[in-house]
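Supplementary Methods S3. Complex input for the adenosine-5'-triphosphate-bound model.
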Amino acid sequence: MKTTKLLIPTQKEVPNDAKIISHQLMIRAGLISKLALGLYSYLPIGIRVLQKVENIIRQEMNKSGAQEVLMPIVQPAELWKESGRWDKYGAELLRFTDRHQREFCLGPTHEEVITHLAMQYLRSYKQLPMNFYQIQTKFRDEIRPRFGVIRMREFIMKDAYSFHLDDASLQETYEVMYKTYCDIFNRLGLDYRIVLADSGSIGGDASHEFHVLADSGEDTICFSDESDYAANIEKVTFSKQEKTCQSTTVESKVLTKEKTSIEDVSKFLNVKEVNCVKILIIKTKDGFKALALRGDHELNEIKIHNLFGDFEFSTNNEIKNLGLKKGFIGIKNLDIDLIVDYSASVLCDFVCGANEYNYHLIGVNWKGIKFINADLRNAVDGDYSPDGKGKLMIKRGIEVGHIFQLGTKYSSVMKANVIGESGKAVTITMGCYGIGVTRIIAAFIEQNHDDKGIIFSQAIAPFQIVIVPINYNKSTRVKALADKLYQQFIKASIDVLLDDRKEHVGIMFADSELLGIPHRMVISDTHADNGNVEYKARNKTNKIEIKFDDALSFIQSKMI
Ligand code: ATP
Ligand code: MG
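Predicted complex, serialized as structure tokens:
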């Protein structure tokens, strides 16, 4: 390709809403263009990168034995009603009616459609296992689309769904997909971690997430500093702890005035947050519950959901009607169930609300208090690893892939059966496997950039090499050499860009660096006098001169 024939709208300005570096660079390098909130067009450079990412995914999925299909993005409501998700999925599911008043949605995922497809064509156990995948557009009406292609409303996902006679077969394919994902992310050159995950609204039994480590990541992931243990913060579980401390003080009531937050109370009383207990009131289908946590801990809503099902935080009015004083709720005289987190229940001589406006209690102990002990909280840095080995470190991650063992969650409600070996109907067992194709590009850039721009790997760079001729439009010798080199690269199937613009060389260098093209060759009259070209790798600072006649073999040797 020649630069003059290509739309490469590089820019210096950073749009206001581009808060993270990958978003800024994707706009500045002209990969994407914003249409509306969470909706982006891919420009020619962006498409080149996207297609390379897709091809790596496609090749590895094919290698794993999965079969490519393509399902519609528009999905009939009936299927979602059958699975029970039409009502459950929430506002992310964009629903609409057609001209005949039939209900539809834009697919945020394809479990229903693929299960329906499987029911039509998978009849006998002899056909199993099978794994189908597609690379296709998804729509999720995200509450907070942000970070460019990281959290979009319309995005491209590779989703795969496998069908099995039993759990053993599912486990086998799950392991194949686990390995395939590692191969894909390795080929893409991402620094990633695999963590135990919660299976969220898609549901199911076992699941792992693949996270690209980046400070801008929206997910929090926890690792042991001594073992392989790694889990999404939502999934780190704690067990009951032994109480080691002994009470040494007598309980008393202190005036704390308008101090209602743990932070203010702990500062005011000069007590660490660790030694305070906070109470949250929730409304469940079985009534109100009080949840007690250590002051420095955060509630894990998924754990609460697993314990009580759907719940809401109580409103100020509800709290008042329960006779409680918001900001001063304590563990005593509660008329509702009290559920205490394991780590709060081993505290001694702690601080909590006095159930009286403007007062807290100090030197409080659990003796005589009736409560249920449970795991309610998120992990924090320095927690003991749940596998008993080492302590937890916490890092930020961008989720780029997610694999689930769905079991019979969809097949049983949608009645997807095959005839088993004994002639009886058997409910199909399923797995599902997603990759955020568009998100991968941003995640890669988060990990591979410098102050000049993106640093693409050869695998996904829009071009593998750029030729920058100095005075291409003035020096016939430079033009002839640049064109010759360009033709050699094309013949050798190397993705080459020839910068044939009448631009200042500084601009041509800056653009190729912003675009992150891995290799650059400069041709000038001075170099030509010596029969040379100048070479520089995007990820190195030094430049070297090589013989013009060796240029092709030199680049080819870098591509192995
Ligand atoms: P997240 O927790 O980030 O919302 P998810 O758990 O909802 O993701 P999955 O349903 O597992 O996502 O979808 C598979 C993959 O699709 C994710 O691992 C992620 O890489 C990608 N993905 C999900 N939502 C978006 C989005 N709004 N924009 C871009 N990519 C997305
Ligand atoms: Mg997920």
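The radius of gyration is 29 Å. The pocket of adenosine-5'-triphosphate (ligand 1) is lined by residues 109, 140, 142, 151-152, 155, 157, 200, 202, 399-402, 434, 436, 438-439 (CB under 6 Å).
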